[in-house]
Amino acid sequence: PRVGVIVVAAGSGTRLGAGAPKAFVGIDGSSILRHALSGVFAAPLAQVVIVAPAGREGDALSEALATAGDRRELVSVVAGGDTRQASVAAGLAALWADVEVVLVHDAARALTPADVFERVIAAIDGGAAGAIPVLPVIDTLKRVTGDEIVAAVDRAELAAAQTPQGFRRDVLDTAYAAAAADFTDDAALVAESGHPVAAVPGHPLAFKITTAADLDRARHLLAEPAP
Ligand code: C5P
C-alpha cells in the first residue's frame, strides 16, 4: 500500500524546559526532529507530512530536507494546533489523495528504530484496520483516588502504547471526523469509532523524550558506541 507518515512535532516542550519548541532541541549535533525523520525516511513511504509549530514551518522543512536524501519531493509541512489531536488532524488534511495507509508518529520518539515502522506496516498489510507498537508495563500499578490506594491493577493485561501508530486511511479519516472528545493517542480515537486495533511489539528505544531526564538518556544512547 501507499504509506503516508504524519510526524507530529508541534508540541511546546514545556515539560522539557529547554526554552524552545521540543522538536528543535538538539540531542547531539542534531535536533529531536532530525533524528525522528532519519528513522522515518528509513521506511518505505509515499509521503511524509511534518506538523510543525505555527511559524516554524520553514525550520521544519530545513530539517527534513537535510535528512530526506533523494526523497525530498515526498515532504510536506503544515502548522499544528493546540492539542496533539488537532495537530494530527492538520496532518491528515495534507495527505495526498492516493495515500492508503497512515502512520502517525511522535517526533519526540526520536530514536525509534526502523523495525518498529516495519512491524506496524506489516500488520496493516496483513489485514488489520489499525496497529500500534506496545511494551509490557514494568511497574506495579495501583488505582488511586486522591492519596488513597483503591485497587491493585493487573499489569499483565496492560501495555504502554508507543508510536508510529498505523491505520487504514479511511478508518483514521472517519475516526477523526467523528471525534468528540480529546484523546492522547490515535488508537483510542479509532477504538472509540468501533474498529479493532492490533498490538505489535514496540521497542525500548521508541521512548518519548518528555523531560530533561529523557533528553539526557537520548544523549547518552547516541554517545555510546554501536554494539
Ligand atoms: O505532549 P506529548 O508529549 O504527548 O506530545 C507527543 C507528540 O505530539 C510530540 O511529538 C509533540 O510535538 C506532538 N504535539 C503536537 N501538537 C501539540 C501537542 C503535541 O504536534 N499541540
Describe the structure in your own words:
The chain has 227 residues and is α/β, with parallel strands linked by helices. The protein has a single domain, classed as Spore Coat Polysaccharide Biosynthesis Protein SpsA, Chain A, CATH 3.90.550.10. The chain has helices at residues 32-40, 57-67, 84-93, 114-125, 169-178, 186-192, 212-223; strands spanning 3-8, 47-52, 75-79, 101-106, 130-136, 141-145, 148-153, 159-161, 165-168, 198-201. The strands form 2 sheets. Strands 1, 2, 3, 4, 5, 8, 9 and 10 form an 8-stranded mixed β-sheet that branches. Strands 6-7 form a two-stranded antiparallel ribbon. The chain is globular and about 55 Å long. The site of cytidine-5'-monophosphate has 18 residues, from helix 3. Cytidine-5'-monophosphate (C5P) binds at residues 8-11, 22-23, 51, 80-84, 87, 106-108, 208, 210. The record marks 15, 22 as: Transition state stabilizer. Keywords: Isoprene biosynthesis, Lyase, Metal-binding, Multifunctional enzyme, Nucleotidyltransferase, Transferase. It catalyses: 4-CDP-2-C-methyl-D-erythritol 2-phosphate = 2-C-methyl-D-erythritol 2,4-cyclic diphosphate + CMP; 2-C-methyl-D-erythritol 4-phosphate + CTP + H(+) = 4-CDP-2-C-methyl-D-erythritol + diphosphate. Its EC number is 2.7.7.60, 4.6.1.12.
